Amino acid sequence: MKPVIGISAALEEGRYRLNEEYVAAIEKAGGIPFVLPCGASESDHAGIIDGLVLSGGGDIAPDLYGETVCVPPSLLKPVDRRRTEYELGLMRMMLDWQKPVLGVCYGMQVMNVYFGGTLYQDITIQYVPNRLAVLDHRDGTHTIKMVRDPVDDWPMAPGQFRVNTCHHQAVRDLGAGLDAFAVSQDGVVEGVTLTSHPYCVGVQWHPERMMYDKLSENLFGAFVLAARKIAFCRGT
């Protein structure tokens, strides 16, 4: 039985938007993609899907992680608040029911906020362990180091990998229960996992755009496999 994978969509100017790469990645991994509008009930959606992808997007409102705006407001591109609040509610339902979750870029940041973590509102202003060493995370590619397996039975050995990058915010304080399994050369958190859950993983890059790459392919493959187990139980 193919698992049904919900993918959260952006809400922009009264329209729902989702890059087609997410749909293609889920189909390639063996799932059935199901686009989720944030105007519906979180419990209804959580009940019909076997796994959840929190897709990429803009910035999370700082008050949702207990802060005020502390960078020039022109640097922030907040997503519609209804989307973030819907995703946080949906996260709760999915975790309660032990269903797999994969967060991508903004989606990983949503996961971190859900568990009480905080964010750098802008890396270039706030992240300064060594200003000269900070990468430009807004565009291009860079190397990450995977320091541990993100989930059990991970098919690849930890090591260094090349990933794409498209963000100006990042995880600052990790949420409760989350572990960082990957970091960039300048120490920015690139991957998080909830070790107490079968598959709750967030990545800061965009694996849906790199499905020709084994790392990205395995991320989606392991995610859909975890969702397939949920679908099997639902069908019995």
Detailed description of the structure:
With 236 residues, this protein is α/β, with parallel strands linked by helices. The chain has a single domain, classed as Rossmann fold (3-Layer(aba) Sandwich), CATH 3.40.50.880. 29% of the residues lie in helices and 24% in strands. It has 6 helices and 13 strands. The protein has a 9-stranded mixed beta sheet with strand order 4-1-5-6-13-12-11-8-9, with helices on both faces. The longest helix has 22 residues. The model has no long low-confidence stretch (mean pLDDT 91).
Short description:
This protein is an alpha/beta fold. The chain has helices spanning 20-29, 42-48, 81-96, 106-114, 123-126, 214-235; strands at 4-8, 10-12, 15-17, 32-36, 51-54, 101-104, 119-120, 141-146, 160-164, 170-171, 178-184, 189-194, 200-203. Strand 2 (10-12) and strand 3 form a beta hairpin.
